[in-house]
Specification:
Layout: H1 2-20, H2 25-53, E1 56-59, E2 70-73, H3 75-98, H4 109-125, H5 129-148, H6 153-184, H7 189-199, H8 202-220, H9 229-235, H10 238-267, H11 270-293, H12 297-312, H13 315-318, H14 324-359, H15 370-373, H16 375-389, H17 395-409, H18 414-438, H19 452-467, H20 472-479
Antiparallel strand pairs: 1-2
Length: 487
Amino acid sequence: MSNWLMAGLLFTPLALATTSLLLDFRQGRALAWLGMVLQLLVSVGLWGLVKQEGGFYYSLAGWDAPLGIELRVDGLAVTFLLLTTLVASGCGIHAGIYLKPDKPWQRYFWPLYWFLWAGLNTVWIGGDLFNLYVGLELISLAAVGLVALGGQAEALRAALRYLLAALLGSMVYLLGVALIYGQFGTLSLAEVAHQVRLMDQAELMRPALVLMLVGLALKTALFPLHGWLPPAHGIAKSPVSALLSALVVKASFYIAARIWLEAGEVVATQWMAQLIGTLGAAAVIWGSWLAWRQPRLKQVVAYSSVAQIGYLFLLFPLTFGVDASTSLQAQQGITLQVISHALAKSAMFLAAGNLILAVGSNRVDALAGVSHFLPFSLFSFGLAGVSLMGLPPSGGFAAKWMLLQASMASGQWWWILVLVGGGLLSAAYVFRIYRASFLERDEKDHFYHPDRRLEVVAMLLAVASLGLGLAGSQVLSVMALPFEEVQ
């Protein structure tokens, strides 16, 4: 059973990507909808398997490490596989309607979309540092191609900047991986962590840890390494922006978090943890401030991503040098933050794309009067904003509440100021969009009305981000599925 599920998880997206290269946009779209169903069945099947039998290591093609590829399927991996299926399917359905089939370059959306999905699945279940890198590179190259899709000069410039940042981040990360291999003779994350604890070689591994975290921080766009993100997310087509913000930046953070949780307690120092948390706090404040000042709608949402990414890096100080229960609470809070942000930001980008279609402009001041004639997409935008602000009962509220409790339990009260201040700044840039939308220019409806299905997709994702707060314990129970029972 596990062989079929793993094959479906890893090879189906690659097969769909390759096949899509031979098809036009409409044929690729029909194939993609079939692929989404297959990925849903595989993800749910893996969830059922892990729930019934516990997590497991899987050696691809029967080759064990270090020669073979080691994969780790646990509750956290299954959580991210399910999240990817939900968000990528929503973005894919939206793209199938939003993109114009008659433009020849649109046919390349589907191959890049499936390569991206294959890379994401590889990262969520990767068990060694090199294969995590391979998955990350597949994601980066596909994402750069998606940003450049369309061929406008501004999109090509943004894609080139994104490519350079991704390559630089990869080189720095690989240097760290090379140091690890030279020191321990293995790239298995679990084996490296075991040897570090056993051999007391923390100081030798520290330079490698710093290099890997810097490379991954650049790929995640942590302040002040975020310069590539707003142009790329702002110029891409709305379904692409949604994918990039909801899933792509999470992949590099996911690797950084796994490395930190496996070895950070032994290898890192208190100042490292506090420095990373401080950069995250700066991202929350600086990103929110710039989001509030942007004249273009998608740039508002893009800078909002810079701010929301900052919250994720509070994981590092809130899990270092604290007791096990506080660390677990912080991990659960960050997991909820990742999921709620993925749902909310994908909904927000899709809703923004619908509003831009309606008014024919990306400018915030062009939204005047849209609340009267196009309330559905504006409402989706607002629901997603509720989660970003951290208001109840959203997933953003549940996440920030758990992080607030972890901050108090660990005595790190200064992060509470960041959580509260970030929520207020989020409210400022979300309500600025609403204020512009409620201005009345005339009573005639001059707006283009997008396909209703586009609005429904954005609304469903926004509702999911809101409902996550009510179902947070069930989501976290998936993450806590046992691992040790099957090896």
